Amino acid sequence: MGQREQATDGEVVRAVLAGDVEQYAVLVHRYRDRYARFAARMLGSLDAAEDAVQDAFVRAFDQLAQCREPAKFAGWLFLILRNRCFAEQRRRTREGRGLEATDEAIAGPDRPDGNVEQIEQAHALERALVDLTPEQREVFVLKHVEGLAYDEIAGMTGATVASLKMRMHRAYDRLRELLKEHT
Amino acid sequence: MTKTYHPSVKRLLDGELSLSDLPLELRGEGAEALRLLGAVDRAPVALSAQFEARVMTEVRRRAGSPMRRFWRGLVEPRDIELRLRLRPGIVWGAALAAAAALALLLTRPSQAPEGARPVRLAARDSVYVRFVLYAPTARRVAVAGTFNQWDQNASPLARVGGGGVWAITLALPQGHHQYAFVVDGGQWVPDPAAPGVDDGFGRRNSMVAVTARGARIL
């Protein structure tokens, strides 16, 4: 492993701010896949997720001087990506077209651990997820896809655990309703 | 109309209860709810092989933009020699009376008093800015901002007397600077004396504008 790859996030951020732009590739390599699944589940499409993650990295570079805690770059990048995902849904809603779950973002027919029924259920759930509000979808994805606890989600998003639970419980009810409609 | 899940079933989905914790009449609903979670796809998602190259191409393009160079010109440290000279009365009385305040020294670097040792600080067209925070219970206070790349260790404040006032004087280059105080190494405190700006990510930073004529909080 090279010296660059061993540098902490804080060291890399400071190097980039000091003018060594190429060091930013270390952060891109380090975090490119960490939030890709989150973005794919939030936006219902792998293409949209890739665009969102790319935009988040570029925006983070533009605003790197505002990163208060360079050692916590990953959490800061997540907030940028989250805002980007929310903005994408608002934009699509304004344009009268909602998100749409596409096959490449979700369990494929060649998924080794799935049978046909499981795959159909996964598709139905993905279609239902994109009909949740962005806030409901976010908490569902972070808890049940990314496997985070409520207090971890609260730390990442700034919301309280109580409000996250309220969002999630509404999401459960809405998903139940949507899955009845889809089946 | 679909019934909503029973609150206990929602706790089951949250992982706070197990199916066997539910009363018998709720176990069917609980099992249905768990099937919902069983359909969650947790498979990793891989971005394309060209992803990093695309990001870095855009980053390099932006790094060379005039706006970026202008911004770097504001925040990038440049070595010059100037001499620190704290004048009596430069801290505004009101700032000390307030819970916290930023005191702005409207002087440009000038001749040194006898015996003053030159120190190296940042930026040629600097203006002295005095940061003051009233924090009587704090053990450590620092100021971090765009002028020191948000380094919590770069600009520690010193106690002024025994009344809980902390202060530091910095020479800041002309331009707009966002900043916040860091208390005891972890608590970020925007300057209560400044209105503050949203940093775009749900937190508040304070802002100071430094010009050749002086400085003011925004």
CATH homology-level superfamily of the largest domain in chain A: RNA polymerase sigma factor, region 2, helix turn helix motif
Number of DSSP strands of chain B? 12
Number of helices of chain A: 10
Q: Please write the string of helix (H) and strand (E) elements of chain A.
A: HHHHHHHHHH
The biggest sheet of chain B amounts to: 6 strands, antiparallel
Q: CATH first level of the largest domain in chain A: which class? A: Mainly Alpha
Percentage of residues assigned to helices of chain B = 10-25%
Q: What sequence of helices (H) and strands (E) makes up the elements of chain B?
A: HHHHEHEEEEEEEEEEE
Strand content of chain B: 25-35%
Could you please say which CATH topology of the largest domain in chain A applies here? Rna Polymerase Sigma Factor, Chain: A
Describe this structure in words.
The complex is a heterodimer of chains A (183) and B (218). With 183 residues, chain A is an all-alpha fold. Chain A has ten helices and no strands. The radius of gyration of chain A is 18 Å and the shape is elongated. The model of chain A is unreliable at 105-110 (pLDDT under 50). Chain B is an alpha+beta fold. Chain B has two domains: 7-38, no CATH class; 81-217, Immunoglobulin-like (Sandwich), CATH 2.60.40. Chain B contains five helices and twelve strands. In chain B, strands 5, 8, 9, 10, 11 and 12 form a six-stranded antiparallel β-sheet that branches. A four-stranded antiparallel β-sheet of chain B has the order 2-4-7-6. In chain B, strand 8 and strand 9 (187-189) form a beta hairpin. The chains are: A mainly alpha (183), B alpha+beta (218).
